[in-house]
Each structure stands twice: as C-alpha cells, then as structure tokens.
Write a sequence for this structure.
C-alpha cells in the first residue's frame, strides 16, 4: 500500500513510518499543513493518516480539500481530540475512520487495512479479473487457482494495474505508487519496464493472457 503520514510530532511520525515500512508499505510523510497539502494535491494514496492539529493549518481543511476535489484516497484521522463532536465532524466531512491517540501500532495497521479494503475492494479481500485472483490480505496471486509467486514490488504493481484496469498509467505514476518520494531520485523509469516484463512472464507462464498494453510515449494500460 502507498500511505501518507500527516503528523507534526516527529517521534510519533517516525515510529509510524518505521512500523508501516517494515510491513512492506510505501510511506510518505508530512509534518506541517503546507507540505501535506502539496502531497495530497499531486499524489494519490491508498490511505492518508491525518492528524488534526498541524503547524500552519487545520487537518480538517485538508480533508475538505480532498473531498471537494473528489479524490478517492482513504482517510484515517489520528488525533488526541476525543470528543464525540470532533469525531462526528471528521466522519461527516468524509473521513473513513477516527483513531484516538495514544494507540497501538498494530491496531493502527488493522484500521488502515480495513479502510483500504472498504474503499478499493468494497469490503472484499479478493480481487478477481478473469483468470487472475488477488488476495489482498494474504498477498497471494493465483492464476486458474494455482499460486504464482511475485516479489512484493511486483505484487503491488500488479494490484495497482488491476485496480485501475482500462486506465492509462504512466511510468512515473507507477513508480511513485510503489516507491513514493524515493521515485523522484531515479534518473529514469526503465525499472518499471523491467518489473512489468517480469510480471508478464510469470502470468503468461502460468497460462494467463497478456493484459498489459504499451501506450507509446506514456506508459501502460491493463485491460
């Protein structure tokens, strides 16, 4: 998953980032309102962890911006504000969940999974596309019922394309989705071609059709 951690407390932000990264996720971070605004305006995330009290602005204004722009990022509010009125306001503005500080990181991760599952898979752990079956929680892919083994990056990339089937995905967008901020340091996105080549081979070797289409000068489409 690609996640954005918006939290002004450096130690908590670092702890969350380390935990979620160790679980195999891509984590971008923002410690103030302006930095967070820039990231959510440009990028898309599976889930945004949103603190409310931020230097330079109010977290709920970021939530208002997201929903006004009809962006589909999941939003999990993490806040020390535990009044029922605050929770109702956050949820009514379009947040998917509200977690009061302090919390266990394991609970946070479970909440993130629930948000992403509800939004992307409509509550279902399994995504099916013709002969391909993806178990999002087990991180397992089957073709005609037989498990095909992928690296974590390959799994994330295939899930990204299947979840956005029939849409043209640029190499840059694919890179940012699975590498986050680190994608900007690459001289080129040729490694995306390499990953897709490997995914194609594993799928076709398992008897799957080749659903990847190259879009000249742009990227790829899965359909």
């Amino acid at each position: 998953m690609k996640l954005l951690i918006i939290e002004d407390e450096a130690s908590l932000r670092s702890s969350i980032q380390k935990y979620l990264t160790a679980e195999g996720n891509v984590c971008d971070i923002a410690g103030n309102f302006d930095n967070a605004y820039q990231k959510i305006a440009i990028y898309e995330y599976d889930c945004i962890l949103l603190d409310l009290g931020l230097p330079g602005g109010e977290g709920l204004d970021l939530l208002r911006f997201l929903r006004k722009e009809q962006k589909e990022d999941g939003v999990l509010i993490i806040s020390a504000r535990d009044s029922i009125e605050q929770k109702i306001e956050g949820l009514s503005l379009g947040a998917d969940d509200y977690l009061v500080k302090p919390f266990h990181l394991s609970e946070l991760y479970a909440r993130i999974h629930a948000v992403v599952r509800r939004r992307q898979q409509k509550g279902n752990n399994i995504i099916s596309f013709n002969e391909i079956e993806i178990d999002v929680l087990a991180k397992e892919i089957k073709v005609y019922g037989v498990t095909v083994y992928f690296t974590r990056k390959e799994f994330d990339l295939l899930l990204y394309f299947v979840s956005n089937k029939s849409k043209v995905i640029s190499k840059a967008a694919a890179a940012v989705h699975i590498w986050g901020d680190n994608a900007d340091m690459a001289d080129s996105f040729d490694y995306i071609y390499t990953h897709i080549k490997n995914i194609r081979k594993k799928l076709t070797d398992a008897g799957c059709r080749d659903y990847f289409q190259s879009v000249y000068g742009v990227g790829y489409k899965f359909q």
